[in-house]
Amino acid sequence: MEPIVLRIEQLLKHKELNNSQLAELLGYNSSEKISRLFRVENAKPSFDIVADIANKFADLNIEWLITGKGDMLKSSVPASRALLPGQQETVQHKEVTFHVVEDRKSNTKFPTMPIPITDIHVAAGEGIYNTDYVANVDSVRLPTNLLKKNATYLCVRIKGESMSPTLQDGGYMIIRLLEKEEWNSMQDERIYVVSTTEGKAFLKRVKNRFKQGFIVMMSDNPDKATYGNFNLTTDEINTIWYAEWYLSAKMPNIHDQYYSRLQRLEDRLENIEKRLV
CATH number, domain at 154? Predict the structure, then answer.
């Protein structure tokens, strides 16, 4: 049995739940999605199952669920003590476990929160089916003052060119899960990760049209023939994550990209003229 499935099993025992009861809590029509994890060899939970579990149990430590690091539950710890240079300790702050890091130069401490990095590739193109599992790669830490308290965060990799030049293929997005009650108040034309009931995931700029029963998914890539807009209806949407932070080692030259596209267009026109002559 996969380690993450073993941790889900451990969580079920702690909560005194069976597969059917967990499925009911998560709002699933049947317990098959949960039962197959324990029945099928090497089965791993999908992105949405992990997100649903993390969102349902407020006391669950999501880093433990995905990586196995730390304790299963967020719990209180002793008050902070004096630290020697280079030492670290874990403190509790409103049900969220933070990591205290000492700044030797200023002799101050600032709390950070671990955000699991998963190998789920967020589609920033036509959309791809997520692999049917979540495997932890590592985690990143951000200062808590940059994050919303008691929220569920993940760090996922961008795949595709549809959001170029704004977002680059291979970069990483830190995303925050939105409650369904927040959907109607989503800010227009901001960037979101949207997963569908079919298991697809899209990273797009979104026009909020929930009052009309849908949203508009838009790409930043100027090649609209390849990366056109499309709509998703409310009943097609499973989860929505707000893209809060973008991490990338690439420093794109937007002007260079523009002139490169212009050169390719001129080359195409030249080829067409040669064929017509």
Answer: 2.10.109.10
Q: What is the pLDDT of residue 87?
A: 41
- In a domain, residue 277? The reply is no
| Helix, strand, coil percentages in the chain from 3-state DSSP, rounded to 5 | 30, 35, 40
Per-residue model confidence (pLDDT) at position 80: 35
Which domain covers residue 53, as residue numbers? 3-67
DSSP tag of 160: S
Residue 91, pLDDT score: 36
Q: How many domains does the chain have?
A: 2
Would you put residue 48 in left (φ > 0), alpha (ψ -120 to 50) or beta?
alpha
The two beta strands, 108-123 and 153-159, are parallel
Domain-located, residue 73: no
- 139 and 43 share one domain: no
Residue 29 is assigned to a structural domain of this protein = yes
Q: Which residues pair with 7 in a beta bridge?
A: none
* Residues with Cβ within 8 Å of residue 152, at least 6 apart in sequence: 51, 54, 55, 62, 176, 177
Binned at pLDDT 50, 70 and 90, residue 78 comes out as very low
Q: What are phi and psi of 27, to 5 degrees?
A: 85, 20
Confidence class for position 168, pLDDT limits 50, 70, 90: confident
Gap between the Cα atoms of 214 and 236, Å rounded: 9
- CATH code: domain of residue 25: 1.10.260
| pTM across the whole model | 0.61
Is 162 part of a structural domain of the chain?
yes
Q: Is there a single domain that holds both residue 139 and residue 29?
A: no
CA-wise closest residue to 99 among 108, 112, 110, 109: 112
SS3 state of residue 157? strand
pLDDT tens readout for residues 175-189: 999 999 999 999 999
